[in-house]
């Protein structure tokens, strides 16, 4: 069995839950020939990526799939690209609030996901759950994690991707999605993770 590291984030922005980790926790332990290792990461620039890299290398992950909350989105959105930029409208949990700083000084401007993002989005939509490819993971910790992982594993056999999910109904914000539908969408994404 191949190993897949799937991550979600701790709550942030005054929320008491984060649907990314809530959904990850509910995934089956084996999907599509992958054994899942689940990890909750902090909303801290740099540190989130360090923890994921450490765990991915510890288990020998073939795939890393990170999940994050994107309040305001009404669909499951696999991310196509991570950009070399940090820009925060709220501080991270280490009280760091960068403004237009590079993630990696002298690093590539951007990296594309090494997962079949369009195929995953189309499969989720075909399962009856709103989904579309996203061309911007923002410039907060989600993008920081995606870019850092893609840079670190560039040229290796480890494939990396990121999926943003909407608020869950439990958060009483709109637009939102049933947690069960988020879990189903992530399951379908993993079922379509191989090229």
The gist of it:
The protein is α/β, with parallel strands linked by helices and 195 residues long.
What does this entry look like structurally?
- It is a single chain.
- The chain is α/β, with parallel strands linked by helices.
- It contains 5 helices and 10 strands, in the order βαββαββββααβββα.
- The protein has helices at 19-26, 47-59, 117-126, 141-153, 179-191; strands at residues 2-9, 30-31, 34-41, 63-69, 77-78, 81-83, 110-112, 159-165, 167-168, 176-177.
- A 6-stranded mixed beta sheet has the order 2-3-1-4-8-5, with helices on both faces. The chain has a two-stranded antiparallel sheet with strand order 6-7.
- A hairpin with a 2-residue loop joins strand 2 (30-31) and strand 3 (34-41).
- The two termini are 17 Å apart.
What is the topology?
Layout: E1 2-9, H1 19-26, E2 30-31, E3 34-41, H2 47-59, E4 63-69, E5 77-78, E6 81-83, E7 110-112, H3 117-126, H4 141-153, E8 159-165, E9 167-168, E10 176-177, H5 179-191
Parallel strand pairs: 1-3, 1-4, 4-8, 9-10
Antiparallel strand pairs: 2-3, 5-8, 6-7
Helix pairs in contact: 1-5, 2-4, 3-5
Major sheet: 6 strands, mixed
Number of helices: 5
Structural class by helix and strand composition: alpha/beta
Mean pLDDT: 98
Helical amount: 25-40%
- Please write the string of helix (H) and strand (E) elements: EHEEHEEEEHHEEEH
Whole-number radius of gyration? 15 Å
End-to-end C-alpha gap:
17 Å
Secondary structure: number of strands = 10
